[in-house]
Amino acid sequence: MRAVRAAIPNQERERRSDAVAALVLALPEAARVRRVLTFLSFGSEVSTAPVLTAFRDRGAAIAVPVLRDGRMEAVEFPDGAALVPSSYGAMEPADRIGVPAESVDLVVTPGLAFDASGRRVGYGGGYFDAFLPRIRSDSTSVGVCFAEQLVAEVPAGPDDVRVDVVVTDAEVIRPANL
Fold this sequence. Notes:
The chain is of the alpha/beta class and 178 residues long. The protein is built from four helices and twelve strands, in the order ααβαββββββββαβββ.
């Protein structure tokens, strides 16, 4: 799936990331967001920059994930924050001011593949799977990907957590069987 995603030309990836952002921002749940947690994309991932900028322009506080002692935590990401490389390649804030998971209204979730039932294949650490149960029950988790990353079925184990909504550059999928 990494190779499939990497085969999308850069300009096309940028255009399609804008399409993903537009669909995320049009979600009814996005209208009430006071704090969003979004990963900082890198490599060939869907760019989260358009989503991050739009939520910031709407006045929402931005948080991003970091790893602390093998556990994913949310930290503030104010405009202009200094970034440093993480151990896994993404950038993250140099200053790590934690925010409670319960304060997050919407989580933009990465993945290598998603299916229509909201299952996802991440990057193997289980960090989002451990974090998502800590958000409020009225918060929304949104998996973002390119259309090619949507597959018929993602194998799932007992610790895998489904996302509430899957957004590709072509569609919004609301799994009915959560």
